[in-house]
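cache lookup: miss for this entity combination. No prior model stored, computing from scratch. Input as submitted by user K.M.:
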Amino acid sequence: MTTSLSNIDTLLTSMANDIRHQLADKNILLIGIHTGGVWVAKALAELLDDDFFDGALGTLNIAYYRDDFTRIGMHPQVAPSDLPFSIDDRHLLLVDDVLHSGRTVRAALNEIFDYGRPARVSLAVLIERSGRELPIRADIIGQSINLTDDQHIKLSNGDDGLQLELRSNDQ
Amino acid sequence: MTNNQLTENGQLRHFLTIEGLKRPLLTEIMDRAEQFSSIGNRQVKKVPLLRGKTIMNLFFENSTRTRTTFELAAKRLSADVISLNISTSATSKGESLLDTLHNLEAMHTDMFVVRHNQSGAAEFIAQHVAPHVSVINAGDGCHAHPTQAMLDMFTIRRHKQHFPDLRVAIIGDILHSRVARSQIQALSTLGVGEIRVIGPKTLLPADCQTLGVHVYHDLDEGLRDVDVIMTLRLQNERMQGALLPSAREYFQCFGLTEEKLKLAKADAIVLHPGPINRGVEIASTVADGPQSVILEQVTHGIAIRMAVMTMALGSQAEEGVL
């Protein structure tokens, strides 16, 4: 594990290569987790062949599946989930920007199973950082990075495209 | 009334009336309902958001649609919900309202949904519940029915988008209608261009003009060029109070028929909160016709109630706003 961030385009290209090698010919359905995961999923789809993924991009909003409603209340509003396909017996590639505690992925898996019964779910993340609280690991990883508890990674999508930023609480 | 339905930071704690609420909050309710509405189309029509919460539907007055959609809304959010028909239980044995309430509260209830024939009942209950309990008004006397008004606004927005461009007519018994009162407050808060009320003099409040609405006693005039027609149920008990001659005569003057509907804009939509009195306030051909959105209103009622329930219970979160 490193402690500084690599160039985002390099990370996306390397993830796309891994996906091409590991998941070719499997008729994969692509699902991004709002909001950062959807951006990463779109970027990956653009780097791969047009017909690599089967059908449109699915999006998940896990706000209704979080485990902290009683503690912090309603999530800010984001677009609702949209899975424009049947997931039954299919191989899904779930995409998120940062894998940290694992709670977001836990919530996303719960939501996915309310739509049907997939054959298999693989997980792709741009950044895998230290701090896991659940037994969840990614299959496709852009970069693994060691961070302290007060450090955070923020993915933004502005005029210059996707940007990764490392922040500390004391800044 | 004062806005004791909001928390210190302006979030919904109770939902008792539209009065006093600002436009961004009404918009937030509709936006959140929009997100919840897709859950009804899924294989598993349920999300775990309110798992472990206990909701009591206290219906001191009959209801089918409102009670069922509140129940379904709670169930789709995974809350435990119990519907009590109070008129036939505890109070008939002589227990006071507050005693009933405190007993139900002792069962660790998180939310009361209240319908009562007395105006102000929901607010009275809200004043007496423990600090962690939320109260939603499901209709109180002639006072307010805020979730009905919000599902009506949501239905209008689905079809018409921009409120300021709209001309909306409400027809019928405005005087006794908690639905109309909440509708007028919601329409004006959302900045609707023109609100008209149409009805016989005996069924319009004397202070109608102060509500910021245009008053019509003639249906033909009132319907001309409107975008939205909101019909109301004519409550049969009004007939006995000598406010109206007969249902037949009412239909002749104020019933919405296909012929009358033609006076409105060609793409006008027709709403009704239900239950419908066919051939009294609305003709069957209109109620079942292509411009009717009456059944859509019922569907939207679930999403609106899911939105309001989560907003109220979410504002009680331990750590405050995210």
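stored under new cache key. Chain B touches chain A at residues 11, 28, 31-32, 34-36, 38-39, 42-44, 46-50, 52, 77, 310-311, 314-322 (CB under 8 Å).
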